[in-house]
């Protein structure tokens, strides 16, 4: 966020997009290199991932940000976005084809190599910048030097012209300085008294740097948390129970269903950042408007899940994956724009609590309780065997209806939040790009 303050949505979309693809990447590593061994997977997660983080830590550091339009930077972001989309399609297609054609070990290793190449593709940008740095046009430098020298000469000429020909006497100079000093001391005294009488610490305004204690008393902070909580909390509930949902509706091979959700989640994260960045610059539209739109779609999607209409499960899963991913890439830049970057880490981690909190409340308590009750009813009636927990649309119908109502509340809260922060975005992006707030009245 601090290195790319004018491309916050794009950066958030890319980072969260790769985060969404990480599960599919680890699954490929688990099935190929680790030979589907749980012990090897735990060793890899315990030692391999931390070592990789330590190795890459050197390259993650603060740099001088650009506050204007940079065509080279835009091209680099575009390259990473294209590479990530190709990687997502590659993983999705190979996951779908694997159970159909039963790839051999050699083909699986070749697929893994291709995935690693696509995963490391963004490294081409620093390599290119190192060996082919951008060259500044020398004539432009000369013109700037000539212009600066002309301004210097002109300033010296003006100084010569304004110098008085006759200097005042020492007595008049002394008296004048005495009077000026006396007046200056009186003014300084009045200012000091005034400051002491009315001095008051000014609280930050939206768009400036907030402390956590200053942000938690703002309505916008809790509105944003509520919107994010309802969106990701309901979405992660479906994700955690997606295999059981598929089995309940008669789909036993749920791998494709999970892969479809994962890919669409990635598209939502990446696309949410790109789309919000475009409209916030061109139309000064608050990013939370897209949270409103996607949560309204999520309401329709949950009703579609509850209806259990034949042939709609895959479409509903894809729609939900996209809308679920958008919540992440919108929340991150919105927090940084409303409450500043100085304490962004604290705000981001607090907002991120919405995901596990929603999983605990909606998935662990709500969906699990309803599912177990329906399964107990079916076992009591002898409708299913002991090997199958629950079948039929009633296993999750009530859960989906409740989730639709929760997202409806989130949509209303998002509309209120968008209306409240619209002037802030007009102030921040009124010139077409991000501007640091100076004399905001919001």
UniProtKB/TrEMBL annotation:
The molecule here is called Nodulin-like domain-containing protein
Its membrane topology, per UniProt?
A: Multi-pass membrane protein
Q: Which GO terms describe its cellular component?
A: membrane
Q: Where in the cell is it found?
A: Membrane
Q: Keyword set for this entry? A: Membrane, Transmembrane, Transmembrane helix
Q: Which InterPro entries match?
A: MFS_trans_sf, NFD4_C, Nodulin-like
Return the Pfam families for the record: NFD4_C, Nodulin-like
Which residues belong to any copy of the NFD4 C-terminal domain?
Answer: 218-421
Span list, region Disordered: 145-170
Asked if the keyword Calcium belongs to this entry, the reply reads no
Q: Which residues cross the membrane?
A: 41-64, 76-97, 109-127, 221-239, 245-268, 289-309, 315-335, 347-371, 396-417
Residue span, Nodulin-like domain:
1-127
């Amino acid at each position: 966020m601090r290195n790319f303050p004018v491309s916050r949505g794009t950066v958030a979309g890319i980072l969260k997009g790769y985060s969404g693809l990480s599960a599919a990447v680890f699954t490929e590593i688990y099935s190929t290199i680790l030979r589907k061994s749980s012990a090897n997977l735990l060793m890899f997660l315990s030692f391999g991932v931390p070592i990789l983080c330590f190795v890459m830590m050197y390259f993650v550091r603060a740099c001088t940000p650009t506050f204007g339009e940079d065509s080279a930077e835009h091209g680099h972001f575009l390259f990473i976005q294209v590479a990530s989309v190709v990687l997502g399609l590659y993983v999705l297609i190979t996951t779908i084809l694997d159970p159909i054609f039963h790839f051999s070990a050699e083909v699986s290793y070749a697929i893994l190599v291709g995935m690693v190449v696509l995963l490391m593709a963004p490294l081409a940008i620093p390599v290119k910048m190192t060996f082919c740095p951008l060259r500044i046009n020398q004539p432009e430098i000369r013109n700037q030097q000539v212009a600066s020298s002309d301004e210097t000469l002109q300033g010296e000429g003006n100084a010569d012209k304004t110098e008085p020909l006759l200097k005042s006497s020492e007595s008049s100079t002394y008296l004048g300085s005495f009077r000026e000093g006396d007046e200056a001391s009186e003014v300084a005294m009045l200012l000091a008294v005034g400051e002491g009488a009315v001095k008051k610490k000014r609280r930050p305004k939206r768009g400036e740097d907030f402390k956590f204690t200053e942000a938690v008393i703002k309505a916008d902070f809790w509105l944003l948390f509520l919107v994010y909580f309802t969106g990701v909390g309901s979405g992660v509930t479906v994700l955690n129970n997606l295999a059981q949902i598929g089995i309940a509706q008669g789909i036993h091979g749920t791998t494709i269903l999970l892969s479809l959700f994962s890919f669409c989640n990635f598209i939502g994260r990446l696309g949410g950042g790109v789309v919000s960045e475009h409209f916030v610059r061109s139309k000064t539209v608050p990013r939370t408007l897209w949270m409103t739109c996607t949560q309204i779609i999520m309401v329709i999607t949950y009703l579609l899940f509850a209806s259990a209409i034949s042939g709609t499960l895959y479409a509903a899963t894809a729609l939900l994956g996209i809308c679920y991913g958008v919540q992440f890439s919108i929340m991150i830049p919105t927090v940084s724009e409303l409450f500043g970057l100085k304490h962004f880490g604290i705000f981001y981690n607090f907002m991120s609590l919405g995901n596990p909190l929603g999983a605990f409340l909606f998935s662990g308590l709500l969906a699990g309780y309803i599912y177990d009750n329906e399964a107990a009813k079916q076992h009591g009636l002898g409708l299913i065997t002991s090997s199958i927990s629950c079948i039929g649309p009633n296993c999750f119908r009530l859960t989906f209806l409740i989730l639709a109502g929760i997202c409806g509340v989130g949509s209303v809260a998002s509309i209120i939040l968008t209306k409240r922060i619209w002037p802030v975005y007009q102030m921040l992006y009124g010139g077409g790009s991000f501007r640091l707030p100076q004399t905001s009245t919001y």
